[in-house]
Predict the 3D structure of the following.
Amino acid sequence: MEDPDDSCPEEIPGVKEALKNNDTAGAAKRIKEYLEKQTNVSLNIAITGESGAGKSTFINAFRGIKNRDEGAAPTGVTETTSEVT
């Protein structure tokens, strides 16, 4: 029995049939659609810690941006982030 929480099924629906019919473009399309769904999954993460511990710096690094970039979480030597954004 398949696990309903399994995010990596044995088969991607429609791929086997498409390949049996020599429809490689159709198989590729189904695989691409499946992968796009996997990369667009909502994820909520909470970061906790003492004031000045580097939480905002961590969040900026996790997002792949520098502390001074536009849209970065504010950072500094004193408490700079008091509201969740």
